[in-house]
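Agenda item 2: zinc ion complex prediction
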Amino acid sequence: MRTVYTDEHRHQDGKFELIEGKFLPPFEMPRRAQIVIDRVRAKKLGPVTAPDSFDLEPVHRVHDKGLVSFLQTAWDEWVQAHGCYDALPITWHTRGFRKKPPLPEVIDGKLSYYAIDAGTPITAGTWRAVKGAVDVALTGVKLVNGGEKAAFSLCRPPGHHAGSDFYGGYCFLNNAAIAAQAFRDLGAKRVAVLDVDYHHGNGTQEIFYNRADILTISIHADPLQEFPYFLGFADETGKGKGEGYHKNLPLRWGAKWDKYEEALTTAMKALKKYSPDVIVVSLGLDTFKEDPISKFKLEHEDYFRMGEMIAGARKPTLFVFEGGYAVDALGINTVNVLSGFEGKR
Ligand code: OKP
Ligand code: ZN
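Presented output:
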C-alpha cells in the first residue's frame, strides 16, 4: 500500500513534557516517524508520496474554530509573554468552575482553557507539524476515495486525544476524525473508526458521540488505570441518534495477545455488522510489551495478526498513525500491521 509522509512533522520537537513528576524530553519525538518511514522503505511496503496541501475547511468540520486559531497563534502569544520556552498550562477547567467559561484574554488562561494535560508542549513549529499531519491524513483520504484499497497516513503528531475544542495527550488536531468526516463529505454513507492505540481515543469518541453515520470503536487500557482517566468506559455507547454507535473495549494492565485478540474479535464483529463504506484505523503501536509509558504486552508477531484481522472486514481502509513510544521497535511493529493487512508476513 501507499504511504503518505512529509518531513514537516520534525517541527514538533518539544523540549519537555511533565511526566511522573519530572520534566523529561518528550516521548512523542521526531525520531518516531523517521524510524517508521525508514522501515516502510526498507520493507518495500509500497510507494511513499508527499501530501497535497488542503485548506482548513475539513478541519473546521470537526474542530471548533477557536481551537484551530488558538493553535496557530499560541506560540507567538506565549513567546511575547514569557520568552522562548515550550508553552505548557498548569491550571485546568475542572469541577466547581463555570460550566461554559469565557475564553481568557491571556495566553496562560487560553492554554488552561484548551489543554487537557501538561504533556503536550506547543513550540515554534507545532502548527507547521500539525498542519502537515492533517494534510497527510487528507491525502490518504483522497487516495482511498480514489479507489486504492488501503493507504497509510504516517501522521505525526498524533491526533486521537484531540476533541472538538480541546487538545492534549500529544495531540493537537484529530487526524483520524478529520479523515473520517472527509470520507463522509466525499460521499461515504457510513464510516467506521477503529482505534487500536493503547490509550483511549477520547477525542474521536467526543467528536462523533451523537452520530450514527460514523461508528467509533476503541480498544484501550482501562481508564481507571490509564490516561485519559475520565472517558473510555464500557458503558459509553453513544448518545441520541448516536446511541449504539460507539463501543469501548477497555482492557486491564498486563493484557497480552489472548485478551487483546478477544477484544479485537468483538470490535471486528461490530464493525462488520455496521458494514461501513470505509474504515479509518487509528494505528497506535504503544500496546507493545516494551513501550516505556504503557502496560500491555503485545509482541512483534501479534501485529501481523492484528493487520490480518482488520483486513477480514474487506473494506477500503485508511491507517492513520497515532502513538507508540518504544521507538526502536516502532518501525517493525507498524509495518507488521500493514503487511499483515496485505496478507504478507
Ligand atoms: C498519546 B497517544 C503516562 C502519562 C502519559 C499522555 C499520554 C498520551 C499518549 N502515564 N501522558 O495515545 O499514544
Ligand atoms: Zn497511545
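Discussion summary: The beta strands are 2-4, 17-19, 22-24, 48-49, 150-153, 191-195, 214-221, 246-251, 278-283, 317-321.
Owner for follow-up: CH.
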